């Protein structure tokens, strides 16, 4: 049975019905420092809290202690972000699926760094995604099947050099065994033509952005 871990980080808070369902269905919820505020706004008490807690309100930290939340405390000066430490904890806990919330918005360097943390999951063959109220982001080096709705937007971006043998189906602009150079914008703003879309590549890595049309205005 796949164990689903949700990590709530200190980026743009999310509260859409899709996000609430994801949290409700999780087997383990981790508060990543200031992500505690997002969870508190949703009425969620995590199973674990990770970080240096410099962005966690003291009253929330006290509440966690009283509730018996397992705390993994780290110094402020360290060689990894709180989210990276929480992600490694989930991977070591043999998570089968990892959903990361609060990893987008705000500082662009943080957002990009968070997206590239998906490489940790890819190397360990663990399914992972970053979600906010309007989109879901994946990193793939092989096959990715997506469930959506006609009108949803799909963008793919090569991130480790060129992507080769790229095939897209279920989209208005399909590709067959295509070459996408690193730095190309060719893969941006495709559109779901069916409820299922498939991304496949032979070599390289792609960041895949699935923008949900039903939440575009949230």
TrEMBL record:
A GO molecular-function descriptor: thiamine diphosphokinase activity
GO biological process: thiamine diphosphate biosynthetic process; thiamine metabolic process
Xref: SUPFAM superfamilies: Thiamin pyrophosphokinase, catalytic domain, Thiamin pyrophosphokinase, substrate-binding domain
Gene3D superfamilies for the chain: Thiamin pyrophosphokinase, catalytic domain
EC nos: 2.7.6.2
Top enzyme class: transferase
InterPro entries with a match to the protein in the record: Thi_PPkinase, Thiamin_PyroPKinase_B1-bd, TPK, TPK_B1-bd_sf, TPK_catalytic, TPK_catalytic_sf
Superkingdom of this protein's organism: Bacteria
Thiamin pyrophosphokinase thiamin-binding domain segment(s): 148-207
One Pfam family per UniProt: TPK_catalytic
Protein name: Thiamine diphosphokinase
